[in-house]
Every structure is written in C-alpha cells, then in structure tokens.
Design a protein that fits this description.
It contains 14 helices and 25 strands. It has about 450 residues and is α/β, with parallel strands linked by helices.
Length: about 450
C-alpha cells in the first residue's frame, strides 16, 4: 500500500512525488513516457525546455547579424540547426537524469508504463495492480488537432512535438494558430531568416495577452518578414497548401514546406479510468477546488489536466498544494498572481488582470504605461526598439492588479510583480521598494509614479 499514487511524470507529477518523498511518504509515480521516454512530461520533452534552447540559439544568431550598432561585426554568420538540435537533446537528457536523481533521492518508486484507474485506490500499470491511500492525477495535455479537412494523416502537418523531430528547418513554415506556441515558433523561424506565414482565427495574436503588447510583438515579427492573416478561418489543407477565408470572407491560400498546427491543447482525461470511480470531469478538464481536490475523497488532480492554467509552474504549485492537503497541511492554490510569458524576441511577460479582463469583471481601474526607451540599461543594451511596461491598479484602493511588460529579460522580472499582487501591495507601497540601478526592471517601479 502506497501513501500516494501519482499518474503522470510532468511538472505536476514529479514535483508531487518529490514533495511526498520529502515528507517521508511512500510514493509511486507512474508515467507512460510517451513524450520522449523520460520523466518531465511535455515541458521537458517537447515544450518549454527544447523550445527555449532553440529560441536562444536563434536569438544569438540574430544578435550576431545585427551587432554593428554595438561595434561588433562578424562575417559569414550561420545558424547550424544540426548543432542546436544536438545541444537541445543533450540538455533534455541532462535534465531528465536530474529528475530521475530526485526520485531516487526521495525514495520514489517509478513505473514506466501507462496507468489506468481500475477501482477505489487502485491503479493498473504494466500488468500489475497497485493500491494507494491517495491518488493524484497529473496526466497533462496533448496538442489539439482541429477537424480541418485534409489535416489528419497529412505528413506535412506537424504539432509542436513533431516540429522538434525535423532533421532540418522548413524554408517556409505556415503556422495555424497565433497563440503562445505559434508566435514563439514564428519568432524562432523568423530570427534565422526563414519565411513564416501565420493564419489565426482571432483578430489578435497571443491569446489573452494585453492588446497593446500583442500588437507590438506582431509589428516586430512583421518587420522580420512574418506574414499574419488574422480573423481568418482555415477551410482545408491539401498537401502543403493551406486554404482559408480572410477577414473579408475572401478565399485565400498559402503553400509552405511544413504546416505547424498550434491551435491549443486538449486535456488527457480519456482512457485513464476516471469513470470507474466517479471523478467529475468534462472536455475542459477534471474539476478541482482550490485544494486540488476532486469530488471523490482522497483523489486529487493537478496541472494541465485540470484545465485551469496550462503552465508548468502552475502545475508544480497545484501539485504541491495537493500533497500538502493529503498529508495534513492545509494549503490553497491561489490564482490571481500566476505569471505567464511568451518567449518571443522581445519577450512578453504578464501577471494579474489586463485592462480588458478588468472591464469584463466590472472592476474600476487606473492604468499607467511607460516606454522602455527611457531606461538607461535598456538603451545601453538594445537599439531602442519599441517596448513598454503597463501597470493596472484598483481605482478605489490603489492595489496592484496587473503588470504587463514587453522587453528583454521580461520573464526574469515578472516575478517581482507577482509578489506585489500576491501580497496585495498598494501602488504607494510599491513606490517605496528600492530597485537596482541601472537595470531594466526599474521601469516596473518608475511606472508606478505615473498612475493618476
């Protein structure tokens, strides 16, 4: 009998196993390895880590080509996809071994097989039945493939998992979907001089990201040659040709070497036995409360499979909350200060409410924004590109409700704003915090003085 059985070894599952082990609990982690054979889930094997490695390589190449303004010139600059692909795979293997080491250190038993719930507290995997006092479901998500005629079984159409397996980059990449995955790959391919066409059903890119920031990134990508077709609906795919209707309902088409399907992700709830114990779930995911509990006693869920935030860091936090509540420590998974990042060049980082979301909720706000090109370090290290920081505060009490930033290192700075929102700091209290100088993060402080 295990204290907890965990289904899925991604950022929710392996973190939960680690936390349980730290508490001295007997934990069993069951993972199918379908994302590449090792632990780490989509994040390590086909998502966060490999794409960031590729993106950094592309960014380095772009900087080398455009270094003359900083007095740095180089001849015959090349981007060697074979080298960066090999380095990425080595990085994945190294991090995978690190996760395996954590499991051993915390005495977590690992079973490499597909697990299925077969009854109360019982999970079957690799022909054996395991029993646990608690069950934590962390089965994650998979690429959503829409029912577009000609898409399924098309060898030229790939998801974010398939694009990493390419032996060479497409000279022309057509991306269906301009969310986080789509725009990151658009940035990656554009930075190394490949042709990119993006077809998006919505009137803006980057999903729920602040409209102004999304437009800024779109302009940056367009300057690098990316073509966007927004408010467009894909009608069919024939071979390497994508047919769509544009915002004027006119029929158009684009032909590319490869077609990246980046239309979102679907939760992995099928064929894992949820029905056998009566867990409440639907197409959006498993229903949980703020303690990560399902409707069934001693059954918890965390990560993408809950349909809340499809972010690795949220998955890890939710899993930690689940383990704490299983074993006697009450914790809650608060969601008002979950940071998110789009790793384009430059990066977008956001936390809290946007102006649009505040209006939707009927919250009265004040806003302030500041361009980064008045910041000393930003000007020292860039060519003065258009970047901005936007602050959202409550109109009545002045509490910080959101911060949205586009610029270099935005992903490294946004955590400070998350702490401010989580701590319910008012804008006057934020002004009292001392920021380092010279640093780009100063803009997050300076913008507070422009809230009127």
């Amino acid at each position: 009998m295990y204290d907890v059985i965990i289904l899925g070894g991604g950022p929710a599952g392996y973190v939960a196993a680690e936390r349980a082990g730290e508490l001295g609990k007997k934990a069993l982690l069951i993972d199918s390895g379908e994302h590449g054979g090792g632990l780490g889930g989509v994040c390590l094997n086909s998502g966060c880590i490999p794409t960031k490695s590729m993106l950094f390589g592309a960014k380095t190449y772009d900087h080398a080509k455009h270094g003359a303004v900083f007095g740095v010139t180089a001849e015959n600059v090349k981007f060697d996809y074979t080298v960066i692909k090999k380095r990425t795979e080595e990085l994945q293997a190294k991090l995978g071994k690190g996760i395996e080491g954590l499991m051993k250190m915390n005495k977590v038993e690992v079973v490499r097989a597909r697990g299925k719930i077969v009854g109360k507290n019982k999970v079957e995997a690799d022909g054996k039945t395991y029993e646990g006092a608690n069950l934590l479901i962390c089965t994650g998500s998979r690429p959503m493939v829409p029912p577009i005629p000609g898409l399924r079984d098309n060898v030229n159409a790939i998801t974010n998992e398939g694009i990493l397996k390419l032996e060479k980059m497409a000279e022309h990449l057509c991306i269906i979907g301009a969310g986080v995955i789509g725009t990151e790959y658009a940035s990656l391919y554009a930075n190394v001089g490949k042709k990119v066409t993006v077809v998006e059903m919505l009137p803006k890119i980057c999903g729920a990201v602040d409209k102004e920031l999304a437009k800024t990134v779109q302009k940056k990508l367009e300057d690098r040659g990316v073509t966007f077709h927004l408010s467009a609906k894909v009608t069919k795919i024939e071979g390497t040709k994508v047919f769509f209707t544009d915002k004027k309902d006119a029929e158009q088409s684009v032909e590319a070497d490869k077609i990246l399907v980046a239309t979102g992700r679907a939760v992995n709830t099928a064929e894992i036995g949820l029905e056998s114990i009566g867990v409440d779930f639907d197409r959006a995911g498993i229903k949980v409360n703020d303690k990560a509990q399902t409707n069934v006693p001693n059954v918890y869920a965390a990560g993408d499979v809950t349909g809340r935030w499809q972010l690795a860091h949220f998955a890890s936090r939710q899993a930690t909350v689940a383990i704490s509540n299983m074993f006697g420590k009450t914790e809650y998974c608060r969601e008002k200060a979950i940071p998110s990042v789009v790793y384009t060049d430059p990066e977008i980082a956001c936390v809290g409410l946007t102006e649009e979301k505040a209006e939707e909720k009927g919250i009265s706000i004040k806003t302030a924004k500041m361009p980064l090109n008045i910041n000393g370090r930003f000007l020292a290290e860039t060519d003065g590109e258009r970047c901005v920081c936007k602050l959202i505060v409550g109109a009545e009490h002045g509490e910080i409700l959101g911060l949205h930033l586009i610029g270099p290192h935005a992903s490294e700075m946004i955590a400070a704003a998350a702490v401010a929102i989580e701590s319910e700091l008012r804008v006057d209290e934020w002004k009292e915090v001392v920021f380092p100088h010279p640093a780009i993060c100063e803009v997050m402080h300076d913008v507070a003085f422009h809230v009127k």
